[in-house]
Amino acid sequence: MTLLEQATRILESATPGEEIEVYLSSGVDTEIQAYQGEVENLSTASSSGVGIRVLRDSAGGAQVGVAWAGSLELEAIYDALREARDNARFATEDEYIAFARPDGVTPADLTLADKSVLSTSLDEKIAMAIELERLVRSGDDRIRQVDSANYSDYVAEAVIVSTTGIKAAYERSGAYVSVEAIATDGTGDQTGWGLSAGRSPGDLDINVAATDAVSRATRMLGALKPASMRCTAVFDPRSTATLLSIIGGALSGEAVNYGRSFFADRIGEDVASSMFTLLDDPTDPRHFSASVFDGEGLSCRRNVLIEDGRLRAFVYDTVSARRAGTVSTGSAVRSGIAGSPSAGCRALQLMAGDVNQAEIFRRVGNGIFVESLTGVHSGVNPISGDFSVGVTGLMIRDGELAEPVREITVASTLQRMLLDIVLVGNDVEWLPASAAGQSLAIEGITVSGS
Amino acid sequence: MVTMSDTLVSKEVLENTLAQAMSRGGEFAEVFVEDRATSSAVLDQRRIEELSSGRDRGAGIRVVVGETTGFAHTADLSESGLLAAAQAAAAVAREGGGGVREIALGPLTHYPTHATMLPADVDKARKIDLLRHADDVARSQGPSVTQVQVALGDSSRHFVVANSEGVYASDHQIRTRFNISCVATGDTGMQTGYRPIAGTRGFELLSEGAVEEAARGAAQQAITKLDARPAPSGDFPVVLAGGSGGILFHEACGHGLEADAILKHASVYTGKVGQQVASSLVTLVDDGTVTGEWGYLALDDEGRPSARNVLIENGVLTDYMWDYLRSRKEGRVSSGNGRRQSYQYLPMVRMTNTYLLEGTSDADEIIAQTPRGVYVAQLGGGQVNTATGDFVFGMTSAFLIEDGKITAPLRDCNLIGNGPEVLKRVDAVANDFSMMPGTCGKDGQQVPVGTGQATMRLTSVTIGGTAS
Description:
The complex is a heterodimer. By secondary structure, chain A is an alpha+beta fold.
């Protein structure tokens, strides 16, 4: 029986006055860590699970209950169904609660699963991890250690069906290599991460991952804590992607409905520099997070959120859209079988500017190049917009990268930063994350050092 | 209702699985069988948004051959499912030909839970009432409290671990967690407040008094911050209030004292046992035996009883934290720090409850003796690079100290520093010890941990605000 048949059969249990949504997933994955030329860990596994939501019609609207199980055995599935039904009885009746219904948007024609993940031999995958470690170790005399060189991949299929007419089935795959290099100059250590990602092992470039890790670790050697200052910060593509993810969180219709976003009530206002156009487009296959369907089984679509600096739209799932008096933008995100759908961005992209990174450094003249951000989850408040994160990077002097700096924070507010963007790069980097990134220069940033 | 048998899988099947895992020449094999039931309830905007129940059951099997570990996991706990997983894990033993090995396990050592009110025995209606009560208490703190979010979660985790060296033990861990988040709205915008209550206990953890105190605390924190001014930028003396400051030691040195980082020479503390690494006021302990604390465990996830391990004593580094694999390499015993998020993950060296022993100073006097600085009433999450020791923490409730007095509240921002340096800058430790629950993430695995400390002062830390 296919997953779709299995899921559809569960829907037959629905009783009058009840809607059921079933999410089934099944997949296999491989993880390899190499250390000192040997396999340190080799993990292979298959896993599957079910997430069930039950909606009860009630006088004041509807009530929803949720249950899940890490198994597709019949007993586990029907236990989950029973628990979800029971849980629904305790939820507050809410007129906005509903499951998605088909909205006629055609699913994008995307191929997101590459079966060569399964046909590539384990030996070939192991060889990649070992070679990645070797490349990093031999990449520079100052590399003294490689914590681990990792290869991982997966192939998964999932279906979402509901008694409200949703029927979505999809497959996806992914393959990744990543490595952390530790460099030393005799007095202190610095680290650098490198990665390469794709949908199959053939997409991976271990040379890119190795070179990136080596250069990021070695160029930070001798980093000092600079004096506090105010200057222009140039975010590298990975740091920009992190920034965009935070901004994407504040563009969630759910956060906006509840006043938990600094963008609330600002549609139509100029919230960013005119060179800032931000889209969420899971139908663009260049995104690793591209997807045909959203977390409720509606077709994903291209949503323009901020256009030439003006706030145009938020992203919605079914419930947040109903609450806001609009319709879903196909933007339900869901963290696996245990998660419920919520409104969120999946594939953010900032429209590219027309300058490369070197030209950005030249035009900025003097400032700081932000290579990595730390403490993002603790230092950014998407409600107030307060922003204060730890940074490592390099100074920019006379238009070029200069000495490395560490143990500093950069601070501002997200509102201010969006308006203070002065340059957007054309160096788009597609990352295994919910946002792609490119170099971005923002002026008036407070840097706390000594 | 969910019921859990004592054994999950029969001894005979475990023995057969271990034998299969060792059949290709493994040196060590382990079967970890887990059955976990979880439930959660969330109140938001005065509505009970969702009750969710989850059940996860399966086994993780690892085989060690030389420096290599093979691992496989399965949700199929039948004998054939376990044998297939054992075979997959054993595939790393490439030479093969280990032959049949008999594995004979002794009697099971079982650790019962200390919880008195098991999650499955508590009515859902009672949990809902508690959420509503917390909401009412928080909103009663003032009209500026515009949003309240309350969450309650519990888990019942039963596992059995058996290995080729004869370990055969099981633990039943019950955990309960409550969080309340408030938003206060004023002329200056919105501010947030947060309080958790969490323990390795049943529903008895959530007394009415404790819940009310958390609700008041979260609401007051948000209200207070409405008057907050931007935090300063630069280096300041910092007084950390007892409790949440412990996370600083978890991040700033705890991770660097985990033997996996040490053996890979990926920690600044490698080779420093016996050396003065901190101020003589610092005695740091990792202790899985503190009954009821969030990081409490009778047994670690490798079947080793938890222990109280002194890591730094009067500033001198005494030992690291160890799991099975790392201790085996060094010819010593595990310190009971082998933990895993679930059966789907390999165990690794993790902290339990990590705390700094209290000192003899008076907290008020420490503040009075600080002419100018920052008082951190609550630290949020943090992050550390173990290779360099550099860390970052969010301050979720902080105030200026002026002329020895706590004055203006400060807006949220990060503080940043270097673990080895900060440890040397502890110049006062008070006698008001308390602990806080947290969730520690490492290499993609989340485990519950406790952190603790008394009010203390650091001579200088960088505050990442925007004011001069």
